[in-house]
Every structure is written in C-alpha cells, then in structure tokens.
Specification:
Length: 147
C-alpha cells in the first residue's frame, strides 16, 4: 500500500524529542540498521514505525519505514543490546538528558528488554521521517495496559 508524504519531524529540544518519541514508540529495528558515522558525526537508525497516529480500536493498523537521525554526535555507547542478525529490537522511548555544559547532553534510546543506546551530542538535533510505503498489520503493540 504505497502512500506519498508521510511523517516528518524535527526536534532541537527535549519537548520536541518527546513528541518524536511518541511517533517511534514500538518501532522495530534490527541491530544492522543502526549506524554511527564518526566522520560525519551522525547516528541513524532505520525502523519499521508503528503509526500510532492512525491506530484505531481494530485492525488494520499500519507501519512504515522511517529514519531517525541525530546530528552533532560525539560518541555512542550501548548497554545490554543484542547484536545478532536475527535480532529485532522494539524501541520504547527516546529522551534527552542535558549535560553540564548546555546545549550538550545525551539522547537515550530505550528498548524492550532493558537495552539502551546513549548517544552523546554537542547539541540536540534530531529528525524523523517516513521513507517508504505504508503497509497494513493486524498486530497492535500491547504493553499490558487496558483503557
């Protein structure tokens, strides 16, 4: 199901990043779809984004490919992240932790199962944009809570 347009977000502060985090909650990513380019000082990941903005009470739900990118990256470290080619990670949250010297800080990407990526940035510059077709799915992420 191909569609044109798609979501495009920019964030340069913690509030903007929290809006972006809502858009990528429950995105699926493989370890090989994450990359730190030290020379370009950038970090990005290609995800299968669950489109919460279109989710109703019943299927179909929708996913799309999207790129989450950070600029001004100084370092990336991980904690408890699987790295196998068959592993699929579920992104739960993205948040900014300001550093001692503004506007520097760390962007934390939290994954299901307790894995984390900490991306040290000289300032917060994040982009998210859908890159490909949208496809239907019958499965909606469930965090064990009911309305």
């Amino acid at each position: 199901m191909a569609e044109t347009g798609g979501l495009r977000l920019l964030a340069d502060d913690a509030e903007g990043l929290s809006l972006m985090a809502a858009a990528v909650q429950d995105a699926l990513v493989r370890p090989q779809d994450m990359a730190f380019n030290r020379r370009a000082r950038s970090f990005g990941l290609e995800v299968s984004r669950f489109q919460w903005e279109r989710a109703g009470r019943r299927p179909p739900y929708f996913r799309s490919r999207a790129i989450l990118a950070l600029s001004g990256v100084l370092n990336v470290r991980s904690q408890a992240l699987p790295r196998g080619v068959d592993d699929v990670l579920s992104l739960l949250d993205v948040r900014f932790h300001p550093g001692a010297e503004a506007p520097a800080g760390e962007v934390e990407l939290a994954f299901a199962g307790g894995g984390r990526l900490m991306v040290q940035v000289e300032c917060l510059e994040a982009t998210l944009h859908d890159t490909g077709p949208v496809w239907p799915t019958r499965k909606k992420p469930d965090h064990g809570t009911r309305p």
